[in-house]
Amino acid sequence: MPQVSLTVNGRPVKVEVEGRTLLVQVLREKLGLTGTHVGCDTSQCGACVVHVDGKSAKACTLLAAQLEGASVTTIEGVAGADGKMHPMQEAFRDNHGLQCGFCTPGMVMSAIDLAKTNPDASEHEIREWLEGNICRCTGYHNIVKSIQAGSAAMRAAK
Amino acid sequence: MGADGIGVAVRRKEDVRFLTGRGTYTDDIARPGQTYAHILRSGQAHARIRSIDVSKAKAAPGVVAVFTGADMAADGVGGLPCGWLVKNKDGSPMKEPAHPPLVVDRVRHVGDQIAVVIAETRAQAKDAAELVEIDFEPLPAVVDSKDALKTGAPQVHGDAAPGNLCYDWELGDKAAVDAAFAKAHKVAKIDLFNNRLIPNAMEPRAATGDFDPASGDYTLYTTSQNPHVIRLLMGAFVLHIPESKLRVYAPDVGGGFGSKIYHYAEEAIVTWAAGKLKRPVRWTADRSESFMSDAHGRDHHSHAELALDKDGKFLALRVDTTANMGAYLSTFASCIPTYLYATLLAGVYTTPAIYVEVKAVFTNTVPVDAYRGAGRPEATFLLERLVDVAAREMGMDRVEIRRRNFIPTNAFPYQTPVALQYDSGDYFSTLEQAQKAADWAGFEARRAEARKRGKLRGIGISTYLEACGIAPSNIAGALGARAGLYEAATVRVHPTGTVTILTGSHSHGQGHETTFAQVVSETLGIGIDQVEIVHGDTNKIPFGMGTYGSRSLAVGGTAIVKALDKVVSKAKKIAAHLLEASVNDIEFKDGKFTVVGTDKSKTFGEIALTAYVPHNYPLEELEPGLEENAFYDPKNFTFPGGCHIAEVEIDPDTGVTKVVKFTAVDDVGRVINPMIVEGQVQGGVAQGIGQALLENCVYDKDGQLITGSYMDYVMPRADDLPSIGVATHTTLCTHNPLGVKGCGEVGAIGSPPAVINAVVDALKDHGVTHMDMPASPQKVWSVINGAHRKAAE
Predict the structure, then answer these.
(1) Pick from A45, A111, B556, B793: CA 20 to 30 A from residue B2's CA?
(2) Touching check for A150 and chain B: CB below 8 Å?
(3) Which of residues 58-117 of A touch B (CB under 8 A)?
């Protein structure tokens, strides 16, 4: 079986993959990083969003074989080295931006990318950005609030 | 109120694990030696199976086993049971056709389970399933419940349910209703269809069966809202495994909304197969499978008539409903269009006479069962649409006709003509608060402003009520429930004064680990970080009925309070001994036991330690230890209610309807954590707006599921929804100690008619008096342009 070398949450890893193996399968099944979730099979729900080379991407839509040399960050890898949660994670907690928690890792990863790309996004821009992340619990109201607060915290930390 | 007690918006205890990717959902659990199951499902809506050949699949790489319905039947595996017996008008029982976990000779809906392929990897199981050869004889299918009742319709179960009829049921006083209609000043009528929905919890269902040959113990890891119910149903009725040998564990569950209440075939298949193979068997649904195998919701056709006197007072209500059950009876399907629907048709009004007939019907579609609100959204949509029609018929203001018929605030307890007795409520206050928050009075100016921009603006209101906290067991039993509906709790105080609560309720997003801990904090005067809430594992928790129908706090929370009362009562005796006082002189407040009128006291922690290290202890009168159980059976349902107001804007060029403002004012009883309550209401409203404008399960006439993925089924996304303004107005529930009513479903119940009433209001100049859900752009555009064409002709 072909091998792929990549960096996951700062650690170099080498994994055997089939041609059809998806990044999300590598993360969940080979590396035990079960924080990245699978909520659909049509690249719609965004529960599997991770960062690949710093940009948000749906891990269910990337073949592992494409990722030779790539750097992948998952929800398990965004906290600080001291274990302190990322400001976006804190903001979701402060603003009740999650309920069942299943879409949450993808939401947080997507939100961090938005805050980097557009640090002071309007409510409208946030809602448009979240087009690719489905949440069934919150009605998005508190997710929008969380992202506004998390973005502000990230700006302040710069 | 302590820092963590009742009424404080404390941050959730469970959030850190979810936010850091350390939640444990069923599919996250790996077992040594595990295999993977793929369920081969029917692509046909209705067909006889002439033969199944699994030989090629069995020989495929990595395949461990292939089982069919014949294998399960040969092992004596039973069918999936229905938990609620509804009786026909003549007293005879409903029809309950067999529901085998794997079909034997006939498939009855797209998605029906035909065989299970078990292999070393998921991919191998899937690949091998392609090699199973099935000889089908296609049969005609029926999709719509009204069509299924017609003479000559395809028969889903043949003689097991002649005419596709599950039951023909009634409630209320027909003669009184007929008499009231005979003297009515006006009669308002409506025909409507409450659209079929697919619940779509974001975590797809999953189940892993495990078997330990050494002990003979089975374990089922599953995505369930009520693991003890699954253990009972699957153990006793399907697989015949004694409870002592069966552990059902529902760990973190990613949303339920009703769809994870039921005992599903896959749970029985993987548990049975694990026993056969002596290896763990894992199954996780693809989203496509979820669409065709999770129980669906709603799907009612109704005709309703409201008789009014000359002042607009409601005299009587008559309702005729046909409810689609799908191809088989799901666990609680039969009670949804009866006891959770017809009993709600009084709503918040004093209508003195009501008569309801309900026919439940089998079709070649996925089984239908409870989905957020379950029966109550259907009742509320019908009633709140009909009241708007009545206002128009009478030439009355929509709000005034409601006020005129509200149950007066001093009339509680209030007995309705459809079996329920409401304990408390104040519909005038929630209405007034919502009208103010929504600036109802200023709406016409906003409508005029929108018109200048070429937009059609409308406002809609719904004043609603629901029954939850299900249910007093004796009443439910008299109505056909085959189980008790109490809840259980254990309070385990540890020697150093920390507390573990074991609850039969299950949290799958509701935040019980926080809310329940706040209740404990308030009672015992300890911080919520000293309290651990354990749920979901039948090997740990007492036998409880789980979470649905907004019952966790009202029923499960009360069980915790009852067990806490016992703890405090025993602790007082220990304190009295230590403080050399009479137990009647001991007061417990803020975590301290004090001899009244003195400064002599002991902390809760000191008492806990004494209970477990009983060196100075009244051993002759009191057992050591501090752990108590309670089973709480509610005295009545609880009755949350309130007022929802939707304001919409329609673009006549595209037919797109946007909810521009949404206001909800709900009475959910005492609020333990306002942040969590707001979140629950917002989520419910989002699902209600989804039903009203976006979501719709569609089958073609041959029974193919057209909306089988997120590409076709329109889930509400962030840019489809507005900010959702939520407030509460509290009247206390009078029959549980917390005074709580429940908040999980109010959003999904109150909102759909508010949105459709707003759409109809926006389109009133186009001759629209009703629109079925969802008010999709196509439907709205067609109405507008049809009307334009008519005007031009």
Answers:
(1) B556
(2) no
(3) 74-76, 79, 85, 89, 92-94, 96, 98-105, 108
SS in 3 state form for B695-718? CCCCECCCCCECCCCCCCCCCCCH
Cβ neighbours of B153 (radius 10 Å): 18
Q: Which domains does chain B have, with CATH numbers?
A: 31-139+202-255+260-293 (3.90.1170.50), 375-467+638-792 (3.30.365.10), 486-632 (3.30.365.10)
Cβ contact (<8 Å) for A102 and B254?
yes
Which helix or strand (DSSP H or E) is residue B473 part of? Answer: helix B473-478
ipTM of the complex: 0.98
Residue of A18, A27, A28, A40 for testing the chain B interface, max B β-carbons within 10 Å: A40
- Residue B261 and residue B225 in contact, taking contact as beta carbons nearer than 8 Å: yes
Strand partners, A71: A7
Q: Which two tokens stand for residue B609?
A: 């330690």
- Chain-chain contact of A102 with B202 (C-beta, under 8 angstroms): yes
Please tell me the predicted confidence (pLDDT) of residue B788.
Answer: 60
Residue of A nearest to B10 (CA): A94
- Specify which residues B209 forms β-bridges with: B220, B281
Contact between residue A99 and residue B510 where contact means Cβ atoms under 8 Å apart? yes
Does the beta-carbon distance from B28 to A28 stay under 8 Å? yes
- A–B: how many Cβ contacts below 8 A? 179
Place of tokens 């301290």: B592
Instruction: Return the ∠ at Cα A56 (arms to A53 and A60), rounded to 5°.
Output: 100
pLDDT in tens, B495-538: 999 999 999 999 999 999 999 999 999 999 999 999 999 999 99
Could you tell me which of B40, B178, B195 has the C-alpha nearest to residue B114? Answer: B40
What does each C-alpha distance from B24 to B18, B183, B447 come to in angstroms? 9, 62, 49
Cβ–Cβ contact A42 with B under 8 A: yes
Cβ atoms of residues A39 and A101 within 8 Å: no
Instruction: Search chain A and give the residue with CA nearest B510.
Output: A99
Q: How far apart are CA B435 and CA B729, in angstroms?
A: 13
Q: Which ranges of B319-442 would DSSP assign to H, the alpha helix?
A: 376-394, 398-405, 427-437
The owner of tokens 């699957």 is B234
- Closest approach of B374 to chain A, Cα-based (Å): 17
Give the span between the Cα atoms of B759 and A102, in whole angstroms: 33
Task: Provide the b/e sequence for B336-375 (b: ≥16 CB within 10 Å).
Answer: bbbbbbbbbbbbbbbbbbbbbbbbbbbbbbbbbbbbbbbb
**Crossing angle between the packed helical segments B427-437 and B398-405, to the nearest 10 degrees:** 160
Q: Specify whether the CB–CB gap between B386 and B319 falls below 8 A.
A: no
Asked if the model's pLDDT at residue B792 lies above 80, the reply is no
- Contact between chains at A75 and B20 (C-beta distance less than 8 A): yes
Domains and CATH numbers, chain A: 3-77 (3.10.20.30), 87-157 (1.10.150.120)
Task: Give residues with Cβ within 8 angstroms of B376, minimum separation 6.
Answer: B340, B341, B344, B466, B467, B468, B745, B749
Contact check, Cβ <8 Å, A144/B15: no
Q: CB-based contact (8 Å) between A36 and chain B?
A: yes
Of all residues in chain A, the one with the smallest CA distance to B511 is A99
pLDDT, tens only, B240-290: 999 999 999 999 999 999 999 999 999 999 999 999 999 999 999 999 999
Categorise residue B390: left if φ over 0, alpha if ψ from -120 to 50, beta otherwise. alpha
Phi, psi of B25 (to 5 degrees): -95, 165
**CA-closest candidate to residue A79, choices A70, A71, A90:** A90
Chain B residues with CB under 8 Å of A128 CB are 718-719
